[in-house]
Amino acid sequence: MDDTLIRIGACGIVPVVVLDTAEKAMPAANALFAAGVDIMEITLRTPAGIDSIRITSLGCPEMCIGAGTVLSLDKCKQAVDAGARFIVLPGFDEEIVKWCTENNIAVTPGCVTPTEIMRALSHGLNVLKFFPAGVYGGVGAMKALAEPFSGVKFIPTGGISEANLGEYASAPVVHAVGGSWLCRKADIESENFSVITSLAADAVKIMRKQRT
């Protein structure tokens, strides 16, 4: 397994971070790192995404930065050039997956059907995004999908919060758990970084309890 994916699994938490201004990227990263979370998925949902990845990769090298909501190969390449160490896709994109695997970039495409999983496996991938997890059946669906595909694990996002984190964290089929509740956009904009640290620290405690 790719070293970056191993690191993501070891942390177990993947905060999904949406930034409207790149200036808030470093304080958000520092808030997460203070809680013991060294993984950060900065989405490309806003124009500030690429600059946020670049600033955080340079300013907080201890943090493993990834790019989320990657919808095109061009944006994928921009994110990697900016310092992204892993790429997250909401669905399966053959072109992006092929480029990432050929260039040794960790990539987790969204896969919620057996067909999508088989396409991912054909590219040598066995850690996949499961999104939106709440809509597509949560833990039960991931367990059922994994049964025919030995070794496949998921990073579920969407519909996950502190309230149900324990259920996801305890499932062997879950590699790590992602979510925006850890680093909420409203808290970033209001500069409530202590709240982000507190939420992330609580998530780390839950994850460790379920995995020990």
Describe the structure.
With 212 residues, this protein is an alpha/beta fold. It has a single domain, classed as Aldolase class I (TIM Barrel). The protein contains ten helices and eight strands. The chain has a six-stranded parallel β-sheet, sandwiched between helices. It has a two-stranded parallel sheet with strand order 6-7. Strand 4 (86-88), helix 5 and strand 5 form a beta-alpha-beta unit. The radius of gyration is 16 Å and the shape is globular.
CATH third-tier fold name: TIM Barrel
Number of strands: 8
| First and last CA, distance | 22 Å
Largest sheet report: 6 strands, parallel
What gyration radius follows from the Cα positions, in whole Å?
16 Å
Order of adjacent strands in the largest pleated sheet = 5-4-3-2-1-8
Oligomer: single chain
Task: Count the domains.
Answer: 1
* Approximate strand percentage: 15-25%
CATH architecture: Alpha-Beta Barrel
Shape: globular
User: Which regions contain 5 or more consecutive residues with pLDDT less than 50?
Assistant: none
Please estimate the helix content.
40-55%
What is the top-level CATH class?
Answer: Alpha Beta
- N-to-C order of helices and strands: HEHEHEHEHEHEHEHEHH
Query: How does the helix and strand content classify structurally?
Result: alpha/beta
Mean pLDDT equals: 96
